[in-house]
Specification:
About 40% of the residues lie in helices and about 10% in strands. It is α/β, with parallel strands linked by helices and about 210 residues long.
């Protein structure tokens, strides 16, 4: 995969492009779904934070990244189009460090970069590349959000990045919707809140 492919995945780099043409396309399935997870507030975008997004397949990890990018493109103030980098991994050998450095050179004029990498676990030793650019390039001041389908690999690799997640960066574990979240999506309101011990007490009182 060469840099032209990366540019294809980041159409907002083209100054002539219209944001409205592709922001909806990024999250069209999410917007048309009856069950919308609330992704607001999961990332602190203000600092140089690095987030690792883990969870089962088809749980919404990619949608979280695309949702954040879309909001950036719609509402980001004084945000350079080249400051947002979306990288989609493909099942082929590649050097993640080389592409990150190539993107860094491409975006030299940006004050800060926001890097979103999906399926990063497809790249062997990806944590070494991230560690290298965080330690030895301007990307130490940038925002990173990384996701992948191999939860165990992400957890182990995340532990190899101590001190490189910024002030509030962390692992985010996405799980299936709770029953209350499901009912909220169905717009069923006014449900009572009960503690687990209260529910167990009711079950013991049932004849």
């Amino acid at each position: 995969m060469d840099f032209s492919t990366l540019a294809f995945c980041n159409p907002w780099w083209d100054e002539k492009s219209k944001i409205s043409n592709y922001t909806f396309h990024l999250v069209d399935e999410y917007e048309s779904s009856s069950f919308k997870r609330d992704y607001n507030g999961l990332f602190d975008l203000s600092g140089n934070n690095l987030y690792i997004v883990r969870g089962p397949r088809q749980i919404g990890k990619s949608t979280l990244l695309k949702f954040t990018i879309t909001n950036f493109l719609k509402f980001g103030e004084a945000l350079g189009k080249c400051s947002i980098f979306r990288w989609i991994q493909y099942p082929e050998p590649m050097s993640s460090e080389a592409f990150l450095i190539q993107y860094l050179q491409f975006s030299r004029n940006e004050k800060k970069r926001y890097i979103f990498i999906d399926e990063i676990t497809m790249v062997d030793q990806w944590q070494r590349a991230v560690k290298e650019v965080r330690d030895n390039t301007e990307m130490g001041s940038d925002f990173f959000a990384l996701s992948g389908s191999s939860a165990s690999d992400l957890k182990r690799s995340s532990e190899r990045l101590p001190g490189r997640k910024g002030q509030s960066g962390a692992d985010i574990v996405l799980l299936p919707l709770t029953f209350r979240e499901y009912l909220s999506c169905k717009k069923v309101d006014g449900l009572p809140k009960c503690r687990p011990e209260e529910i167990l007490k009711w079950s013991r009182q049932t004849p």
